[in-house]
Amino acid sequence: xxxxxxxxxxxxxNNVPAxxxxxxLARIGHxxxxxxxxxxxxxxVVVVFYFSLLIxxxxxxxxxxxxxxxxxxxxxxxxxxxxxxxxxxxxxxMLLGRVWCGVFCxxxxxxxxxxxxxxxxxxxxxxxxxxxxxxAFVCTTVYGQLISVYEYPQAALLVLGGSTVAAVLVGLVxxxxxxxxxxYLCPASxxxxxxxxxxxxxxxxxxxxxxxDTRRSHAINCAPLIDIRHMKSASNCHACGRCSGEHGAxxxxxxxxxxxxxxxxxxxxxxxxxxxxxxxxxxIATAAFTWSSSARFVxxxxxxxxxxxxxxxxxxxxxxxxxxxxxxxxxxxxxxxWLDGLCILAFILGGGGALGLAVGAGIWLAARVLRDPAMPWxxxxxxxxxxxxxxxxLGLSMLTLGHLKAxxxxxxxxxxxRAALLTLAAGFSAYLAWRMCLTRVTKRTLMGFAxxxxxxxxxxxxxxxxxxAV
Length: 470
Ligand code: SF4
Prior knowledge:
By secondary structure, this protein is mainly α. Strand 3 and strand 4 form a beta hairpin. The relative contact order is 0.11. The N terminus is likely disordered. The chain is built from 18 helices and four strands. The strands form two sheets. Strands 1-2 form a two-stranded antiparallel ribbon. The chain has a domain of 193 residues. The site of iron/sulfur cluster has 15 residues, from loops.
């Protein structure tokens, strides 16, 4: 195996502890590179665990009333997938970057393996379209709600297993030893890419060191196909560590969580990313978390059902859709009618879309008022990444808490923690907006800042309503 160049780490006389922690992080990054076999072994453990929890519970009966997570595999799998995996992968990405993708993700490992032995075709232009992560995220989220993916193992197998099959097929056809699926198509990649922007931990590239290091390049297999030498963003980096120490220029480092977003140029602020954030992560995802507990949803559906019955129109009230189209589990007394399905679609797409558009309109207006070529609406929208990320975590953790409540665990600490997270994220987003708008203090920039706070206030209002009913 090629030896890894050691990064020259200069000890800053007045800041020895900081220099020591930088050196330690750099060493961790180098160790990740040296121990790729161990990381691969870990990925295979995750693959086995993932398939066991995805497939086996499909054949298990419905849990009894008194069943618990610890003694019922079906409940255990449900808790692991939706109560731990998803919420904490989101939180982990905000803190550590996309380590999940590079070190643990079973889908990433499988698509890369398939790509190693596949046809190795070049990536077509249509596949590189930057709207795929948004489309895939919306389709998966909406479909998952229609078939109750959080509740039933059949539905989880269809959604998660379908995604894994698609990842393997893409790997078999396109790229060579790479993760074309993860880079361009994975339904979660858009969200992960946004959240990784505020991660304090990242693989930093120093272009000057790279340029001055004349040592021969090592062949690095960067699976998500990044031009490492020019990498500035953590969005696409899977934090796998394979390039750590390359040319003495790449190291695992700490940074300020605001640095990437504030330093991005107008050209680097992409419309696709902003739309994924506003309509996808803030709009559609919030609506998907909240429809089932919404009094308005129940009210609207009841009114429609009454109207249909009064007009003797029974077709939409039938509940004869198959389980892979709409939830259909008569044994669990859980069956959706066509009207249920249409109302869920309307709530998530209509309600979520309206929320995303309202938030986007506020950001667009703020950017118009600022009239600063360095601050397009796409970049200003990124100020909402912290509140959007915490929103996704809080929404997913509602499932975690539902499980813990059923286990009889004390949850008195939850409201305080939720309030603290919401306050922290709102403060972080407000700080980003402040830094972006108030590059100098004028009437115009103050007005732009005030306008940029409106969409943030709207998101906080929605979460206060959902979490605290206030
Ligand atoms: S740039 Fe590529 S090789 Fe380097 S850590 Fe990120 S994903 Fe891995």
